[in-house]
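We emphasize that the prediction below concerns an isolated chain of 192 residues; any contacts that depend on oligomerization or on bound cofactors are therefore not represented. The input was used exactly as deposited, without trimming of termini.
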Amino acid sequence: MKSNFLTTTLPLLFLLSPLSSLASASSASTISTALNKVQQSTSKLGDSITSWNGKPLSLLLPGPQNNKNPILVAAVSLLAQVEKATKTARDSGPVPDLEGALQVAQATTDLVGAVNVTLEAIIRAKPKFDRTLLTPLILIDLGLQRKATAGLSQEVVNKIPPELQDTARELVKPVDEGFALAIRVFHQPPSF
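Result of the prediction step, given as a token string:
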């Protein structure tokens, strides 16, 4: 019995088509999970800054009178999480459908909210950083976080369908604007 292209290949293509859909769903889930982890690390940093007692040593060491999650530890952890999420997004396949793009958009929106809350906390804490002479250290960290976040944003936008990439860029735009504002504030003279 002879087999021809239509009788052997067409059924295989039909069977494999759901795998393509699963791959796109998998990429969206993988990227969303990575963004959610960054959001959690961002919130931890914000909580650390909000609860900081203003003592220099408590930036580094946990203890009963200071942060359970010191700011320096939270900032380094966040930077590592952003770099890990960037690699995850880079290594993920494209998100070719609207459903996957919406899933990533929701995770992005949650992350943008957490970043803005954390940046606002950093700005409110500037007088404490000024008093401890740590403002230059925070300014350096803001620059590193901004650069890393821009890289993550670009990798995520690259995975979104081309017709939705402008919208994706608009979703992440407030993050860079927030970093720009925080950096401007930290460039201002100390307010002892």
